[in-house]
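Entry:
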Amino acid sequence: MAFAGSQGNFELNTMRPLVIADVLRSVRTLADSVRLFRLWCVEGVELDRERIAAHVERSLMLVTALAPTVGYDAAAALAHSAQRSGITLREAAMASGTVSGEDFDRLTDLAAMTTGRSPVAGSTASAVPSSLTRWESEGGSCV
């Protein structure tokens, strides 16, 4: 296509049909690739909800939701402590006394974080994985 574009003698665009044919061929190839990707790689895939919940519970990324409340330094210290000790961020926060379990659950509410809502005051969530369940029950979807 680059060659065809450079061969437009006197800018009469004599190679325009070749450029258009190449673009259409590329679009067709891309469309076929997307269709086959959907057919062979996406359809039939099911979520392993237990594994997702376990990863969310052990994720240190939740510390970013705590930083506005406890401060950057305290949040970083919690993340380091959890990583060094091999415990969850929730356990580290409760052990340090920085935030209570209820406050941690309210501040790291996945439904609030993924929908742009502010954390609901007084949330009674018992653990971070339950946030995933609440998110799903409110219409959240990973697929």
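The two ends are 37 Å apart (CA to CA).
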